Amino acid sequence: MTTPEIKLPKHVGLIMDGNGRWAKLRHMPRSFGHNAGMNRMIGLAEHAQKLGIKYLTVYALSTENLSSRPQEELDGLFTLFRKYFKSNVKKLVSKGARVKIIGDLTALPEDVAKLLEDSEKACPDTAGFTLVFAINYGTRSEILRACNLAVERGEKLDSEGFEKLLYTHGLPDPDLIIRTGGELRLSNFLTYQAAYAELYFSDVLFPDFTDGEFDKAIEEFSRRERRFGNV
Ligand code: IPE
Ligand code: IPE
Ligand code: MG
């Protein structure tokens, strides 16, 4: 797959959708699907780093998920986050990677919020590979927050100043957004930042989204012509 002519995206955004349906097909609870999805995400992050992708942003929980999913499902997700961040961050750092979190952590259980913040702090400021977790993330609230910060500061902003107030400040815009699970929408994921991203939709449910399926998205990206408004 790493043929020299492949044009790699620097930053890939991944909407990991389909865990619930994957579990349902197996007559299992949704939490079983989220667990399988978490394992698949770990594998894909390693794969992306090996390919030479610099940033991978994974959509783990949207603002809408937090406000509308049953508490039992949310509690299961928090347990998974606790498990992941307690056992994987050191390993990532030892392999030249770091984690970053985007989203509003204040609405999460206190221990989870602290664990996420501490995990981010334990990472170097720069690394060859950055795994970004979007947790209680939604672009609409991200933009509102930025506007309110600007108003509080009494600042009139240019685009550079505005982008500094977003959760994603310091990250390049995504070049490619992949959504698994068959839905053709962005569901409030990086909708400002993805203004010129290439979009790739797969019917494969996230726990079944193999490294090979990811490679297909990268190959498709490599064939796209990006014009950015030019001829
Ligand atoms: C995406 O899978 C993961 C999260 C939203 C946390 P879903 O839970 O939305 O799975 P489906 O779409 O119901 O299959
Ligand atoms: C998007 O999936 C959010 C995540 C993958 C975390 P959803 O399953 O919540 O999206 P909708 O509700 O179908 O748009
Ligand atoms: Mg879904």
Name the descriptors.
single chain, 231 residues, alpha/beta, 8 helices, globular, binds 3-methylbut-3-enyl trihydrogen diphosphate, binds magnesium ion
Summarize the structure.
With 231 residues, the protein is α/β, with parallel strands linked by helices.
Write a structural description:
This protein has 231 residues and is of the alpha/beta class. 45% of the residues lie in helices and 16% in strands. It is built from eight helices and six strands; from the N terminus they run E-H-H-E-H-H-E-H-E-H-H-E-E-H. The protein has helices spanning 19-25, 30-51, 63-68, 71-94, 110-121, 139-153, 159-164, 211-223, and strands at residues 11-15, 55-62, 97-102, 129-137, 176-179, 198-201. Strands 3-4-2-1-5-6 form a six-stranded parallel sheet, sandwiched between helices. Helix 5 (110-121) links the parallel strand 3 (97-102) and strand 4. Helix 1 crosses helix 2 and helix 2 (30-51) runs parallel beside helix 4 (71-94). The chain is globular, with a radius of gyration of 17 Å. The model has no long low-confidence stretch (mean pLDDT 97).
Mean pLDDT: 97
Number of helices in the DSSP assignment: 8
Radius of gyration: 17 Å
SSE order, one letter for each helix or strand: EHHEHHEHEHHEEH
Please give the alpha-carbon distance between the first and last residues: 30 Å
- Tell me the overall shape: globular
- Class computed from helices, strands and strand pairing: alpha/beta
